[in-house]
Amino acid sequence: MFMRIYFSLIFYIFIFTSLSCSSSPQIDQVQEKNDIQFEKERRGPPPDGGERRGPPPDGRERRGPPPDGRERRGPPPDRNFNKPMYKYSCEINGQGFCIFSGSPHINGLKPNSEEIIDRDLNILFSVNNAIAVNSSGEVLKPSGKPASNGDYLIESYLENLTKDEISFHKVMAIMFPIRNALMYDIEKINMSYWENLVIELKIRNIKDSTYTEGPTPRDNFYSREGIFDLAKNPNQRDIHHDVMKFLEESGIHLLCHVTSEEFNNMLRDSHPEGHDPCKEAEITNKIPF
Fold first, then answer.
1. Helical (H) or strand (E) element with 192
2. Is the sign of the CA dihedral 267, 270, 272, 276 positive or negative?
3. I need a surface site. Which of 50, 98, 238, 258 has the fewest CB within 10 A?
4. Whole-angstrom Cα distance, residue 165 to residue 176?
5. What pLDDT, on the 0 to 100 scale, is given for residue 273?
6. Inter-residue contact 204 to 67 (CB < 8 Å)
7. Residue-wise pLDDT tens digits, 121-167
8. How far, in Å, CA of 209 to CA of 276, rounded?
């Protein structure tokens, strides 16, 4: 009798153990499904109603389509064509002049000549073979962007350039020394030399007047003589905004004179603030080179 009870007990223990082992994976699967469902209910559905996805294997941000269903686009193209990438400022030196950060152009057009000269006044080559490049040596694309830190001129053949492209590079050659004078060399520049530098502006009536009664500095502007006087006597203030505005507007108004209507329209269509700089220049009679 005792042996029968003993073997019956062994038999029941064996049956129970077998059932427990066989059902464990099924229980685990059910538990996993319950955990997933709980997490979905806790987090809520994604905005687009689709499957919520975790981060990609490489750890980068998962972007997917935007909630409004439109095509996701990268950053907008750089339309800030006429603003230099370099952020300028100027500091008052011991002599009271506001000297800019950055560095001067290493060459430019000699006033009243067709000669490109370096900082030591050595003649390098003719402006008729001059092309403007950036600090990396890449040819500047014709646009309304003013001269920037590190731009300089190289000698090159211009046979494959359009008339507008040739005019653009000559404008750069003219503006480089004007820029140097106001930003870096003002201490040693006199009025006579300044007038020679800006002769191409004068014959086209570019920057003839000064206005300083605007509600903000952004609304003010200086004439050729006015900006020179300001640079000579900044009165202990940072004048970088006034100088940069003069250089930007002078350069683009000179471009308006010496380039075609098609180029003028490009300047209007690509202006970052929607302005028509050639119209604003109030040019009644274009004077080309």
1. helix 191-197
2. positive
3. 50
4. 17
5. 82
6. no
7. 999 999 999 999 999 999 999 999 999 999 999 999 999 999 999 99
8. 20
Identity of the residue numbered 178: I
Mean pLDDT of the chain: 80
Helices (H), 115-183: 163-183
Measured from the Cβ of residue 223, the count of other Cβ atoms closer than 10 Å reads 17
CA proximity to 239, closest of 214, 221, 213, 215: 221
Mean pLDDT of 263-277: 91
Task: List, in sequence order, every beta strand (DSSP E) within the chain.
Answer: 90-92, 98-100, 107-109, 115-118, 123-126, 130-133, 152-155
Read off the pTM.
Answer: 0.70
Q: What is the per-residue pLDDT across 50-83, written as a single tens digit (0 to 9) for each? A: 444 444 444 444 444 444 444 333 333 333 344 4
Residue 204: name the closest of 242, 171, 240, 227 by CA.
171
CA distance 173 to 258: 14
Per-residue tokens: 251: 């350069």
Question: For residues 243 and 136, what is the distance between their CA atoms, to the nearest angstrom?
Answer: 25
C-beta separation of 217 from 241 below 8 A:
yes
